[in-house]
Amino acid sequence: MVTIPQRVVITEVVCRDGFQDEARMIATSEKLALIHRLIQAGVRSIEATAFVHPKVVPQMADADTLLAQAPREHGVRYSALLPNLKGAERALAAGLDEIHLVVSASDSHNRANLNRTTAQSLAQLATVAAFVQRAAPHVTIVGTVATAFGCPFTGRVPLERLGWVIGHMQAMGIEQVVLADTTGMANPLQVKQTLYALRERFPQLEWGLHLHNTRGLGLANAYAGLETGVTRFDAALGGLGGCPFAPGATGNIATEDLVHMLHEMGVETGIDLDALIAAARGLPALIGHDIDSFVVRSGKACDLHTFSETAIARV
Q1: Catalytic residue among 15, 151, 243, 302
Q2: Helix (H, G, I), strand (E, B) or coil at 101
Q3: Is the pLDDT reported for residue 315 higher than 60?
Q4: Domains in the chain, please, with CATH?
Q5: DSSP string, 62-75
Q6: 151 is catalytic
Q7: For helices 188-201 and 218-227, what crossing angle results, to 10°?
Q8: Taking Cα atoms as reference points, which of 234, 250, 233, 253 lies closest to residue 242?
Q9: Which residues contact 273 (CB under 8 A, 6 or more apart)?
C-alpha cells in the first residue's frame, strides 16, 4: 500500500513565474491585490518576485516596491528568486523569509538563461549563499535546479549530472532543494526513480518539486513526488508561467488543480479551495487571455448537479 504525506506546503509562484513572461505589464497594485486574495485563501508560502535585471525580465522591475508594500501577516512567508550577489543584497533589504538560488542542470539552458556555464553559476551562488548565511542566518536558502529532468536543447539530464549539481548545493550549506521540470519533459516513473536515487545519496536534504504542465503530466508527476514523500510543491494560480529562455515552455501546474487533487485524496494544504478558484477566475481580466485550469473550467469533483427526469435520453 502506498503511503503519501498527510499534509503538504504549496508555494504560490504566480507573481513570479506566472507573470514573468506575460505580454501585458501587471501593475504593482494588481499584484498586491492578488497577493491579498491568496493570503485570504490560506496560502502561506508566496514566491512574490525575482531580483533580476529589469531589462531582462521587465515584469519583475517592481520587486523592491512590491515587497515593501506586501501585507505582512502572521505565518505568511515571502520568497524571491535571485541569481547573484546584487540580487541577494536587495532581497535581504526587502526583508524576505526565504531566497531561491537557481541554476540549470544543463549547460546549454544555463547559458541561455544566465549566459554562463552551470559550473560558473554554482561558483557564483556559493558566494551568494555564504553572504546570506553570514548577513542573515535566519533567512532560508532554497536551491532550485532548473531542467532537472530534461533540457530542451540536450534532452534528458543524466542522474550523475544532477547529483553533481546538488552536491555543490549541499556543500554551500543548502538544506532544501527543489527539482524543476522547466519545460515539462518529465514523466511519473522518471520523477519517482530520480527522487528515490537522490534521497538515498543525499538523505539529509529536504526535497520539493516545481512542475510544468507542458505535456499534460504535471499532476501525474506531482503524485509521483507524493509517493516518494515530497511535501513541498510550487504551483501557479491559473496554470500561468513558462520560461522565456526555453523553447516550447508553457505554464506551471495550476494551484487550484493541485489543491483539488490533494484535497480529494485527503491531503491537507491549509488552503480554501473555493477562495482559490474565485481568485483564479479573476485572472483572465488581469492578463488578457484565458487560463489553463481544469477546476475553473469544469468545477470540483464534489460539485453535484440537479437530476431531472426530463433530462433522461429516450431511446
Answers
A1: 243
A2: strand
A3: no
A4: 9-311 (3.20.20.70)
A5: THHHHHHHS---TT
A6: no
A7: 30
A8: 250
A9: 256, 259, 260, 263, 295, 300
Residues 6+ apart with CB under 8 A from 146: 102, 103, 104, 105, 109, 110, 113, 180, 182, 243
Q: In the prediction, which pLDDT does 311 show?
A: 60
- Residues 126 and 168 sit within 8 Å (Cβ to Cβ): yes
Cα gap 10→233, rounded to integer Å: 5
Per the rule left: phi > 0, alpha: psi between -120 and 50, beta: everything else, 32 is alpha
For residue 285, CA distances in Å to 59, 275, 288 come to 17, 17, 5
Q: What pTM, to 2 d.p., does this model score?
A: 0.94
Chain segment 10-19, per-residue pLDDT in tens:
999 999 999 9
Q: What value does the mean pLDDT of the chain take? A: 94
Q: What pLDDT, on the 0 to 100 scale, is given for residue 250? A: 74
Tell me how far CA of residue 20 lies from CA of 52, 128, 176, in angstroms. 11, 23, 24
Specify whether the CB–CB gap between 75 and 44 falls below 8 A: yes
Q: Which amino acid is at 131?
A: F
β-pairing verdict for 140-146 and 45-50 = unpaired
63-67, 149-153, 264-268, range with the lowest pLDDT: 149-153
Report the pLDDT value the prediction gives residue 308, as an integer from 0 to 100: 75
**Grid coordinates standing for 17?**
513565474
Higher pLDDT, 308 or 284: 284
